[in-house]
Amino acid sequence: MELQVNQSYPEKVALQSTPPTLLLNLPELPNGLEYRILGRELVLRDSDANIIVDYVPNALPDIAK
After folding, report:
1. N or C, where is the chain less crowded by C-beta within 10 Å?
2. H-helix or E-strand spanning residue 23
3. Is the Cβ–Cβ distance between 43 and 3 less than 8 Å?
4. Structural domains of the chain ordered from first start
């Protein structure tokens, strides 16, 4: 799946929570924004509008290797 800023977060994809150990190392977000994991990408999601505000491609290691 190819992500784009300002696109809707995919409806058919589960909202996978971000592990607490990762959250401890990320900046705190204002209300309405949240971190989500989508594959290997770290996604910044506007929870009210359900859109992708930003994302970091390949932010997580490939555990299949």
Report:
1. C
2. helix 20-23
3. yes
4. 1-65 (3.10.450.160)
Per the CB < 8 A criterion, the answer to whether 37 and 23 are in contact is no
pLDDT at position 62, please?
82
DSSP-derived secondary structure for 38-54 = ETTEEEEEETTTTEEEE
How many Cβ atoms from other residues are within 10 Å of residue 43's Cβ? 22
Per-residue model confidence as pLDDT tens digits over 15-53: 888 889 989 999 999 999 999 998 889 999 999 999 999
Length of the chain: 65
Any idea what DSSP says for residue 20?
H
User: Amino acid letter at 19?
Assistant: P
